[in-house]
Amino acid sequence: MEIVPIKDRAFAMFVINVWYVLGGCYVYAMGLIFMNQFGWRVIVLLTAVPTVVSCLSSCFILESPRYLFVCGRMSELSDTLARMFKMNDKVLPKYNLGEHVEESRGSIPEIFEGDYFRITILLAQAFTINAFIEYGAALLLPDMFVYDYCSDTSLFDDDNSCYMSNSEYLYMLLIGSVSLPAVLVAYLTCDKFGRIRTMLFSGAVTLVGLIMLLICINMYVLVGEAAIVVFFSVLQNCALWLYLPESYPTYVRNAAVGVVNGVGKLGAALGSLITEIVAGSSIRACLTLYVCLTAYQLVCIYLMKRDAVGLRLDDTRAAARERSQSQAQETG
Predict the structure, then answer these.
(1) Residue 260: CA atoms inside 13 Å, Cβ hemisphere, count?
(2) Which residues contact 244 (CB under 8 A, 6 or more apart)?
(3) pLDDT tens, 81-111?
(4) What is the pTM of this model?
(5) I need a surface site. Which of 125, 200, 206, 242 has the fewest CB within 10 A?
(6) 3-state helix/strand/coil string of 65-76
C-alpha cells in the first residue's frame, strides 16, 4: 500500500485479492480434473507451480520509496523513483527531498504503546478469528459434502467414504468462485462506505449465514448458504487487509503488519486443529464455535471506530505525534 496513492488503494487491494481468489479456484479445479484419476501427488505438483511463479515475480518488485526515505537510503530512493516513472512511461518531475532527519526504525514494543496499543490488540484479535474460521472452514466444508452433514454424522464413522467425488469438487469450486465478485464489491464499497462499515456489515451477514448453516435442508441449500458465508467473509477480509497498513505510520508499519499477520497465522493453525477435533464429534458444534467467534470479532471491529478512508500514511514519529495531538484537540 505504501507505493499506491490514496485514491487507488482499494483498487490495488482488489487486484491483489483477485489473484488470491483465482489461486483458490485453481486448487479446486485441479482437484476436480486430476484428483480421482492421478491422486494427491499430482495435485501437490500442480499447486506448486503458482508458488514458483510467485517467487520469480518477487524479484521484479520495487522497494517502497516511502520506506527508503524513512530509512535515509536516498540513492536507492532516486533510482527507484526513476524506474517507476520509466515503467509507467512518465516523465519524472524535478523534486527536492529536503534534509532527511535520521530516526530509528520502529520496533515491536512501539505498536503496543500509546495510541497504537488499542488498535493493535483489536486488529490482532480480528485477524486471528478471521484466519481461524477461514482455514478451519477450508477443512470443514469438504467434510460437510463428503459426510452426511444433515444427519450430523461423525467424521470418524468408518462407513463413510473419506474421498471427495467430482460433484463435490464442483460444489467447492462454485462456492470458491463467489469470492471473485466479493473482491469486486469490496473495491466498490470500501471507499464509498468506509473500511469499518464494510467490515461490520459483511461480518453481520457472515454471522447470519453461519447460523443458517446450522439448519441443513439439503445439499443444494447447503451450497447456497456456504456461498453466502464465503462471499461476505471474503468481503470482510479484503476490508480488514486494507485497513491494517493504513492504521500505522511507515516507521512502524512493518512491525505492526508482521505481528498482526503472525498472530493471525497462529489462529490459522489453531483453526485447522480445533476444527478437526470438534467436527470429529459434531459438525454443528464446530459451526456454533464459528458463530460465537464471528460475533466476538464484530465487537472488536466496532471498537476500532476510527476509519482509514483517505488517511495520509504519515512517515515519521514527528508526523504521527502531530496527527495524534491534532485529533486530541478536535475531540477535546
Answers:
(1) 28
(2) 123, 127, 256, 257, 260, 261
(3) 888 888 878 887 776 665 555 555 667 888 8
(4) 0.73
(5) 200
(6) HHHHHHHCCHHH
